[in-house]
Write a structure and sequence with these properties.
221 residues; alpha/beta; CNF1/YfiH-like putative cysteine hydrolases; six-stranded mixed β-sheet; five-stranded mixed β-sheet
């Protein structure tokens, strides 16, 4: 079996930020419910995290309830964090993780204060403003200035395969907040079944991609 892995140069700045987007695992049967699919994917995700240099980091995930609540996390935070759809930290050696299968994983990097955020933003979360909430919380917690931040959008489902262009709305929200650089990879999960899982196209019986973002150890006090 092979594992599709992508990285985004825009949020791999100066060597202190590490990111990845783990796509479809070829030939793995995930035509089942979410929890069973994640259980079948677990060993492959662990292998990928090891191969990508995330091994040894605290792996922190969110419950993902399609809301707009954001949690500040560190290496001691129990995971998954209940009731939240976005995670932020300024702690080195903490790996943030978000699972998606048509929703967008939104990466945020503050190079000035060495802080990161990762959000799960589908049509509901985008309408509720989960990404602006994440950026605002980074400002309150770490002093992050949107004008000096970089935001990256992962593959997600898009028109005409989905009726709402929530990726475009996330970009608009980021620009409205004054984010210095917003990068959308432009890939559609529904249109690329060989690379990505799609909840819509596979009628809810599918796997999940895993977005990863971490601050390298030794970059902050």
């Amino acid at each position: 079996m092979s594992i599709l892995v992508e990285t985004f140069p825009a949020v791999a700045i100066g060597g202190q930020f590490r990111n990845a987007f783990i796509g479809r695992v070829s030939d793995l049967d995930v035509t089942t419910d979410r929890e069973t699919a994640l259980a079948r994917l677990a060993e492959y995700h662990i292998e990928a995290r090891r191969d990508l240099g995330f091994e040894g980091m605290a792996f922190i995930t969110a419950e993902q309830v399609h809301g707009n609540t954001v949690a500040i996390v560190d290496e001691t935070t129990p995971a998954p964090v209940a009731g939240v759809d976005a995670l932020i930290t300024n702690r080195p050696g903490v790996c943030l993780g978000i699972y998606v299968a048509d929703c967008c994983a939104v990466y945020a990097v503050d190079t000035e204060h060495d802080a990161i955020g990762l959000a799960h933003s589908g049509s509901k979360g985008t309408a509720l403003g989960v990404v602006p909430a994440m950026l605002q919380k980074m400002g309150c917690a770490f002093g992050s200035d949107p004008a000096k931040m970089i935001v990256q959008l992962s593959p997600c489902i898009r028109p005409p395969l989905y009726e709402v262009d929530f990726a475009a709305e996330i970009v608009r929200q980021c620009h409205a907040m004054g984010v210095g650089e917003v990068v959308d990879c432009g890939a559609c999960t529904g249109a690329n079944p060989d690379r990505y899982y799609s909840y819509r196209m596979e009628k809810g019986k599918t796997g999940r991609m895993l977005a990863l973002l971490a601050l390298q150890s030794g970059t902050t006090e």
